[in-house]
Amino acid sequence: MRPFISLKSIEERINGKGLEIDAVPLAQILDLDKTPVYVTSLNAVSQRLNKYKEALSIHFKQNEIFYAMKANFAAPILNTVSKENFGIDIVSIGEWRKALASGIHPNKVCFAGVGKKESEWKEAILGGLGNLSVEHLTELTEILDFLSEEKKLNSIAQKKLVVSLRLNPAVEVDTHPHLKTGALNSKFGVLFEHFCNWLNAKKMQFKNEELFLNWINPLKGIHVHIGSQLTENSIFPLVARKVLDCAQFMFENKIFVQHIDFGGGLGVGQNGVPENGEDIFSHVHFVCNAFKQESKKYPKLLSIWNDDFSNLFVCMEPGRSIVASSTIFLTKVLYEKRNSVENIFCYVDGAMNDFPRPSIYGAVHHAELVNYDNMNLSKNDLNIFSWNIVGPVCESGDFLAKNALLPQIHKGDVIAFFEAGAYCRSMASQYNLRELPSEIFVRDGNITDIF
Ligand code: LLP
Question: What does each C-alpha distance from 109 to 41, 65, 103, 282, 283 come to in angstroms?
């Protein structure tokens, strides 16, 4: 299922009548002659954002959803995020600048990212950044040193800044190896024992407790993000315990955690997402309930957060689950070729650099033939074949689908790939000096933007 996308029966897929997205008929999109093109329903994006907010607000009065813009940084999406007053999760100074240009308040930005440059975090901090997630203890030391200097200089910026420790909880999750971010072999975050050693050493170095507490004061949060495209969340009670152990250790050192960020990660399957956002609700409820349940074992922490957690700010940073199913990728058939019965190829005008997830991660995106160019189909044309859908790039890794089950394909037909909103256009490149794919945004029956 895909909210705001309706796919018609196979017999209807002629003359652009095969699909509607946010009440815009495919015909209107094909008339623009923009393939390969991404088409996005902005209502679908809004609906999913609001589901997150609704679900998280049930559990925590103080909360924020930071949309992870790495999933899709198209201006109409960021404008939607901004207009609806959501926050943004960024990982580079380029994303910071783009978020601000889209009207996001700096205080509603969360800057995570492994290997930030000093110039990057300084620019963001001085620009009024609200939340900074630190992934290395040297980075943490440098940032705290900088903030204490700035304090002396009476700068305004750092006053509202919350610095969080990105904890590496050293847990394994079931996803593509490139998408795991919370395991022992992961480059992300800081291990608990490393943080403990660092803190003890820093205390010794400062000698004077008041000076130390003053220096460490901006550190008020803990952040975890264990991976992306997670299809089950049974690891979360353990992750919650690791976060709570860290918060408890901080408490014992007079550092009072006020901010917890559970990251993103909710996966999206090949069939899309439920119309009513049920997947978001159950994920958020599971994570929050696991955390609340585990918190009962930490009375000291509850004494600062209150039993109803009204003194704790909780946030999440979803990317994929907001945008994946809002978007289709449309590509036009150029021709076909049959090397053998098993090896049949459909050449399209989109390539691995336009739609990279299949070639990079072996990801499977559901494909449908959504417009027949030839209206006089014979019965045989509806037989199903196993197609390798390939693009014009000069390498064999250039495929959009392997063994996609589709009927006979003809030149000029249009194929749609679904769940194309996350990490597709944002990862597109100009390899082979191809132009970047076009983008069309729609809402309430209107095309709002064309790029
Ligand atoms: N927060 C942090 C710190 C992250 O690293 C990520 C994703 C997110 C939030 C958002 O995660 P999501 O809700 O989207 O799963 N290119 C890959 C995905 C890389 C994800 C990187 N980090 C793909 O195409 O599957």
Answer: 24, 10, 11, 26, 23
DSSP-assigned letter for residue 404: E
- Cβ–ligand 1 distance for 111 under 6 Å, the answer no
Q: Which amino acid residue places its CA nearest to atom 16 of ligand 1?
A: 423
| Cβ of 113 below 6 Å from ligand 1 | no
| Mean pLDDT within 96-110 | 96
Residue indicated by tokens 């194929």: 415
- In the chain, the percentage of residues whose pLDDT exceeds 90 is 84
| 89 touches ligand 1 (CB under 6 Å) | yes
- How many Cβ atoms from other residues are within 10 Å of residue 344's Cβ? 16
Phi, psi dihedrals of residue 203, rounded to the nearest 5°: -60, -45
What domains appear along the chain, each with residue ranges and CATH number? 5-41+324-450 (2.40.37.10), 113-316 (3.20.20.10)
Sequence-distant (6+) residues with CB within 8 A of 438 are 34, 35, 36, 37, 38, 450, 451
The ligand 1 atom nearest the CA atom of 227: 15
CA distance 20 to 447: 12
Residue 186: per-residue pLDDT: 84
**Mean pLDDT taken over the chain:** 93
Q: Quick one: pLDDT at residue 242?
A: 96
* pLDDT the model gives residue 386: 93
Please state, in angstroms and rounded to a whole number, the distance separating the CA atoms of residues 350 and 355.
7
Number of separate helices (H) and strands (E) present in the chain? 13, 21
158 pLDDT higher than 60: no
Looking at residue 437, what DSSP letter applies? P
The tally of CA atoms less than 13 A away on the side-chain side of residue 355 is 38
